[in-house]
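quick one, 181 residues, struct below
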Amino acid sequence: MIDKKEITVPDEVLMSKIYLIRGQKVMLDRDLALLYGVQTRRLKEQVRRNKDRFPGDFMFELTKEELQDWRSQFATSNSEVMGLRRPPFAFTEHGVLMLSSVLKSKKAIAINIQIMRIFVRLRTMLLTHKELLVKMNRVEEQIQDHGEDIHTLFEYVDELMKDKETATQQASRKKIGFKKP
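---
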């Protein structure tokens, strides 16, 4: 059993380490190594030794262009500042889960469990937002239909106001011609 006191990483920190690359939520090798308390090269070593456990949908290596794009998000061009000399490995949710079978320290297992819970929470939030988006689209469609009706209503009101204004102007004009005593 893993002691809850061992988990000292706030969820917000873990969530900030999840990036969207190639349309997938991923975590980079350097962040995972830091969280697990191992060197990045050791983590990569373990992954390379167990290549068959990490197919393309579990993990991929960033291209140089993706690395540049990722770096530009942090407004830095110096590779030493970000500590990346080579493109990092990006682990999907399944890849992070598979890392727990490769890295067997208690800390790695505890952090992995926490990361899995965050991925599940993100997926749930995404589904909730998707449902809200669908509902908003329905409301928008209804508003558009009502918008046409409201536009027509305003045209009628404008027409009535013009008629009333014309009648008021006619009534206030000085009459010309023969007046009855």
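The CA atoms of residues 36 and 163 lie 79 Å apart.
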